[in-house]
Amino acid sequence: MKRKRDLLKVFLLVLPLLLTLNFSTALADDDHRERHEEDSWMEEVGETLGWGSVFVASATGMLLPARRMVKPVKEYFPAGQKSLVSVVKGLTKYHIWIGVTAVGISLIHGISMYFAEDHLDIGDWVGAGSATLMIVAGVIGGMLAVNKKSIKKWKKTHIHLLLAAGFFAIIHILAS
After folding, report:
1. What does the pLDDT look like over 25-57, one tens digit per residue?
2. CA–CA separation, 34 vs 73, rounded Å?
3. H-type helices in the chain, by residue range?
4. What is the DSSP letter of 20?
5. Looking at residue 85, what is its pLDDT?
6. What is the mean pLDDT of the chain?
7. Which of 58, 110, 165, 175 suits a disulfide with 133, CB 3.0-4.6 Å?
8. Which of 174, 57, 50 is nearest to 110 (CA)?
9. Contact in structure between 86 and 66 (CB atoms under 8 Å)
10. Which residues are CB-contacts of 51 (< 8 A; sequence separation ≥ 6)?
């Protein structure tokens, strides 16, 4: 039952992104539509998913800075401590599911952009590298979740892989 509830929460997290997509061109019954118009629809979906993956990945990535801010906020702004601790608890509770969602959206983004453009250029390969780093970091994160002792070396590896993935994602965005 808990797993179904978690999947429902992930779906509800992704639902607003799906609702922002414009499906009107996909549902239109226009026999005279040219191929490039179909590609532009697929490209639009891919770009929207790309920005959605940036948003979701940023949300899960906020856990580390939020955790590091607790002590200074407690020291200098005691009134804000309760709010920040609440944010940290929420991010910690859903960190894995948000991360899995970010990887999934990134993969769907890459696949849809490939179908829209029918080729891969250097920026696309950089994006694929970013997604690959996210997947490897996710596997390491899964190992950390199972092993609650959380070996510090693996936690640092998880963080550094995701920082590298973020760097490659920025290059991917700039190259697109």
Report:
1. 344 444 444 444 555 788 888 899 999 999 999
2. 57
3. 2-20, 24-27, 35-61, 63-76, 81-117, 122-146, 152-175
4. H
5. 85
6. 80
7. 165
8. 50
9. no
10. none
44: CB partners within 8 A, 6+ apart: 22
Tell me how crowded residue 162 is: count the other CB atoms within 10 A of its CB: 25
Residue matched to tokens 């414009």: 22
Where along the chain do its domains lie? 35-175
Residue with tokens 């990535």: 61
104-138 burial by CB neighbour count: b if 16+ within 10 A, else e? ebbbbbbebbeebeeeeeeebebbbbbbebbebbb
Percentage, residues of the chain above pLDDT 90 = 38
Q: Are 8 and 51 in contact (CB under 8 A)?
A: no
H or E stretch covering 1: none
Question: Residue 105 — φ and ψ, nearest 5°?
Answer: -65, -40
Q: How far is CA 15 from CA 8, 10, 25, 31, 75, in A?
A: 10, 9, 20, 30, 38
Helix (H) or strand (E) holding 151: none
